[in-house]
Amino acid sequence: MSPLVGVLTLVAITVVWGSTFAIVKEALAVLPVPLLLAIRFTLAALALAWVRLDRRAWRPALILGLLAFAGFATQTIGLSLTTASKAAFITGLNVILTPIIGSWWFNNRIPPKAYLAAIVALAGLGLLTLTSVDGINSGDLWILATAVFYAYYVVYLGEVAGKASALSLSAVQLWPMAALAWLWALPHLSLIPEIPVATWGALAYLAVAATAIATVAQTYAQRVVPAYAAAVIFVLEPVFAAFFAYLWLGETLSLLGWLGGLLVLLAMLLSGLRRW
What we know:
Blueprint: H1 3-27, H2 33-47, H3 58-79, H4 84-91, H5 94-106, H6 112-130, H7 138-160, H8 166-172, H9 174-185, H10 197-221, H11 227-233, H12 236-249, H13 255-272
């Protein structure tokens, strides 16, 4: 894969991911969080069941799976408590956290712009949450945890993507994700027969397009696109998410909320463009 194809692949992934905020929000009206995740991860794992396993992928895939599960779990809980638009912009803070965590975990130097980006991001986050009707709610805090876990995921994936089979890394990480989700979902198993056909369609999209295919594509793309550049591309995700939330859910932000969203986007660009 060439760097250009890698960049275009990551852009396509952000479109898919942006659409999932509204889809998950609607699915949560029918399913509890753990059951939604258990079915999503199981269908995604089955979609990649044909992958030939690379023994070098076991350990990094387990770590990636734990980080991804934590990210998906906190995000899905958060989406049950806050709006899709706010969730998308807060999740986007992982772009600012990525270079900071990279420095702490792998001793990379933190560029000065990362500090400026953090200040701008905090200002944007304040406008997004403090000026909304419900202010800061527990859903916003769950989504903030999501940003931390996603930042860890992106940094670690950037370190291991070229050290094992991309397909194996993508497939194996789904196993611990599905296992943990089913343990969490045990009290809700009786609801499975009651899931509407339309919700099964949404789950299939979340599992195959937004999880299985997106995970494989991201792993291949981050072999040729550095983590800092990938972080810049992920700036687009909350933009697409806000668009789909408006289109499908009729969600809107206040004027100050949109200003806060723009500040978050600016902070994401400041953080990621440090080498461009």
